[in-house]
Design a protein that fits this description.
With 260 residues, the protein is α+β, with helices and mostly antiparallel strands. 26% of the residues lie in helices and 26% in strands. Strand 2 and strand 3 form a beta hairpin.
Length: 260
């Protein structure tokens, strides 16, 4: 009986060890799962592409998140290469809440930007610059230059798109490059691509479901233009967005609800 017990324990130990090794391997594999999103910035097209990690394919696949951007001018170019997105930059000089919601840079203290996310220590994704911490104070010239190199090296985005990156892409790989120029088809799809289901993290006080749809506004948008794009009446848009006073104009980067 004692011999039988010893034999059982002798065979059980390797099996237990194998189980523990497999468990540890599984835990390690799970821990190494990459970030949900990867960001590609095409400096030829001035577009930001968001890829999503596909667990089944074990690779990143393209999504419909395609943002128009304004990278650095020729005299202050946006650096190319591979970086990691982080939610806080060392060069920030004004950030009283410590949240990155509205900041100023040490070298540009008169300019405010929103939703900053590091690319390097001093180069970040951020909203269009403003003279005050207020979306309505965005400069018209900067709006008109969207889609063209116009920054001091950072990647400018419309406010809600900058907020989306900040809320969803901490730790994401950022690949910045000069593309071959074959993405022109995205320009014709821009009106469709900007209709999105926004992150709950960006709209914590709003009722956002899987059926909710928004349009991110661009410069020059009117209620009539939004109505045509959304294929619903202007009155319906006003009804769905009772918190917005459309009589004052529509600032860029605003999320206008078009479906509930």
């Amino acid at each position: 009986m004692i011999l039988y017990k010893l034999r059982a324990e002798f065979f059980a130990l390797p099996i237990l060890a194998a189980v523990l090794i497999l468990f540890a391997f599984a835990q390690t594999a799970e821990a190494k799962e990459p970030p949900k999103y990867k960001i590609r910035v095409d400096l030829t097209e001035n577009l930001v592409f968001i890829d999503e990690w596909d667990i089944k394919l074990q690779e990143y696949v393209s999504t419909e998140h395609v943002f128009l951007c304004s990278p650095g001018r020729a005299s202050t170019p946006t650096p190319t290469g591979t970086f990691t997105a982080k939610p806080r930059a060392i060069d920030w000089t004004y950030d009283p809440a410590g949240t990155g919601e509205w900041i100023r840079f040490r070298s540009y203290a008169s300019v405010y930007v929103n939703s900053a996310t590091n690319i390097t220590q001093s180069i970040v994704f951020h909203s269009l610059p403003s003279s005050r911490p207020d979306y309505h104070q965005i400069n018209q010239r900067d709006l008109d230059l969207m889609g063209q190199p116009s920054s001091q090296g950072c990647v400018r985005l419309l406010p809600r798109q900058a907020a989306w990156i900040r809320a969803n892409c901490d730790g994401s790989t950022v690949n910045i490059y000069y593309g071959a120029g074959y993405n022109s088809g995205f320009w014709s799809l821009r009106e469709e691509l900007r209709k999105e289901v926004p992150s709950k993290a960006i709209y914590p006080d709003m009722s956002v479901t899987e059926n909710t749809k928004f349009i991110y506004t661009y410069f020059g948008d009117t209620i009539e233009k939004l109505s045509d794009m959304a294929e619903i009446s202007a009155d319906k848009i006003i009804e769905l967005n009772s918190d917005i006073d459309f009589s004052k104009g529509i600032p860029a980067g605003l999320a206008v609800r078009i479906k509930d």
